[in-house]
């Protein structure tokens, strides 16, 4: 498979190069040149396969040419063997035609493990093969950072630097990052919000000297391998509910648009999906876009679902590329308007309203949904999942179509909000019970590109060994 940039001015790359590069040199994102297709027969045959086997079948066309089938099989088996639930991504039922896809059984209790456990192994394999090292630089609003650190800790070919907005991630989220004391792990608390962190990372990628010297790579959801890995659970879940012979709807708590975009990829690959619901908290740029055709930045408002406190969704550009009929010059135009005018408008008629729907959920509604879900279905959900459930209820068009809400985090990751809503303090699973007793290591830095670059250059082993 070859990959092309959404802005059309960077060279096409193979899978190996795309994983190690992240952002394209023209500022765009890499997308597959074509969408591999799965026939209904091939989708039906996923029934009865393990999650790792399904991942191998669905994803192999994306990696073909860079990794042998046997090597890839070993990676999916290892990545999904690290989950605490044998089904990896089990489904639970809340009501008739109402389901939860439990994506939080990985090592850091959020859905990002599903992709990052595989990405860690891809790095090992691809770098080991080339005898290379990389410096991973990433921004996190909470969950990406811990999942990335968990996937990369102790690996000799990788140094990892994670920027998080100081004081704006939960204590559990911060501790899951800062209590990992491996020498190759560096946590930086930035005086700013998540968008500031993300802007710093983007700027480091656009500084080609810095990027080349340190062999900088991304684990953010801009990395194609992450989106790719997330495609799998749309297929496996649909199959377990009778797909592809009946359409399924999904509601996806969204921030950077990576998870819901993976659902769109599954649709493009041939999975029948009735509705793909983009659920946001009050940071609602995506909801405004799908309802009004206007993509316009506003400030970020901290919420009880902090992993979605984002205004500029980095993966959105990938969707925009398809929406524009894969016209890279149109994407360049929109992105220029976003930079210069703070937003752009798309003709509502060109919006593929057929499968996307979107809505926003207030803080009060989030708390009320946690309480209601516990009362009606005896299930304790985290605030992100609650946003998905609320917007699913608001937006679903056909009650006879199964609605699957992606449960993106374990409630114990956000205990304060869950306790406030339900009166129940969610306990961490056994392997994390001592999280608050472990020592932390992190450095706070100002929101200043040069300071952050100097810090990273001073510590990255690729320069200092
Ligand atoms: C990252 C995250 C999201 C948002 O996912 P995107 O791919 O950024 O849209 C939602 N919920 C949780 C718990 C997350 O960690």
Draw up the topology in text.
Blueprint: E1 2-5, E2 13-14, H1 15-21, E3 30-32, H2 40-44, H3 51-63, H4 69-81, E4 91-95, E5 98-102, H5 112-130, E6 134-139, H6 143-152, E7 158-165, H7 171-178, E8 185-190, H8 194-206, H9 208-214, E9 216-217, H10 224-240, E10 248-253, H11 258-268, E11 273-280, H12 285-292, E12 294-296, H13 316-323, H14 328-341, E13 343-345, E14 356-360, H15 363-377, H16 383-395, E15 403-407, H17 415-422, E16 443-445, H18 449-459, H19 461-464
Task: Characterize the structure shown.
Helices cover 44% and strands 16% of the residues. The longest helix is centred in the N-terminal third of the chain and has 19 residues. It has 465 residues and is an alpha/beta fold. It has a domain of 219 residues: Rossmann fold. Pyridoxal-5'-phosphate binds next to helix 11.
Q: How is the largest sheet built, in terms of strand order?
A: 4-5-15-10-11-14
Span between termini: 36 Å
| Topology, number of strands | 16
What is the subunit organization of this protein? Answer: single chain
The coarse overall form would be: globular
Q: What's the average pLDDT? A: 93
Bound molecules: pyridoxal-5'-phosphate
CATH topology of the domain at 91-110 and 224-422: Rossmann fold
Treating each run of at least 4 consecutive H or I residues as one helix, how many helices?
19
């Amino acid at each position: 498979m070859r990959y092309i940039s959404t802005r059309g001015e960077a060279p096409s790359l193979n899978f190996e190069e795309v994983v190690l590069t992240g952002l394209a040199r023209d500022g765009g994102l890499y997308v597959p040149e074509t969408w591999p297709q799965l026939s209904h027969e091939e989708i039906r045959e996923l029934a009865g396969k393990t999650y790792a086997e399904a991942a191998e079948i669905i994803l192999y066309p994306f990696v073909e040419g860079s990794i042998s089938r046997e090597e890839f099989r070993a990676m999916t088996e290892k990545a999904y063997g690290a989950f605490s639930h044998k089904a990896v991504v089990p489904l639970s039922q809340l009501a008739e035609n109402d389901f939860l896809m439990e994506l939080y059984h990985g090592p850091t209790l959020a859905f990002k493990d599903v992709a990052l456990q595989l990405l860690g192994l891809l790095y090992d394999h691809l770098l080991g093969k080339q005898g290379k090292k990389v410096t991973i630089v990433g921004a996190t609003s909470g969950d990406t950072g811990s999942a990335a650190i968990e996937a990369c800790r102790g690996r000799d070919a990788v140094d990892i630097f994670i920027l998080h907005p100081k004081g704006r991630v939960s204590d559990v989220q911060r501790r899951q990052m800062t209590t990992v004391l491996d020498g190759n792990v560096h946590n930086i608390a930035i005086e700013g919000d998540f968008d500031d962190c993300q802007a710093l990372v983007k700027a480091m990628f656009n500084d080609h000297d810095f990027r080349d010297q340190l062999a900088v790579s991304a684990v953010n959801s801009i990395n194609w391998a992450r989106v790719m890995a997330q495609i799998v659970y749309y297929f496996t879940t649909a199959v377990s509910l009778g797909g592809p012979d009946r359409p399924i709807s999904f509601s996806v708590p969204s921030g950077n648009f990576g998870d819901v975009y993976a659902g769109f990829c599954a649709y493009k690959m041939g999975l029948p999906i009735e509705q793909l619901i983009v659920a946001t908290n009050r940071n609602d740029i995506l909801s405004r876009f799908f309802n009004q055709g206007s993509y316009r930045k506003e400030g970020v408002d901290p919420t009880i679902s902090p992993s979605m406190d984002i205004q500029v969704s980095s993966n959105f550009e990938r969707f925009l590329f398809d929406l524009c009929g894969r016209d890279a010059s149109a994407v360049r135009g929109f992105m220029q308007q976003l930079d210069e005018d703070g937003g752009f408008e798309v003709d509502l008629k060109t919006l593929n309203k057929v499968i996307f729907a979107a809505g926003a959920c207030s803080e009060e509604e989030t708390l009320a949904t946690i309480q209601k879900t516990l009362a009606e279905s005896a299930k304790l959900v985290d605030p992100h999942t609650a946003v998905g459930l609320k917007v699913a209820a608001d937006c679903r068009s056909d009650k006879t179509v199964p609605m699957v809400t992606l449960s993106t985090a374990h409630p114990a990751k956000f205990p304060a909000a869950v306790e406030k809503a339900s009166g129940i303090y969610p306990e961490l699973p056994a392997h994390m019970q001592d999280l608050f007793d472990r020592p932390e290591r992190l450095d706070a830095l100002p929101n200043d590109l040069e300071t952050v670059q100097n810090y990273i250059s001073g510590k990255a082993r690729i320069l200092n060994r």
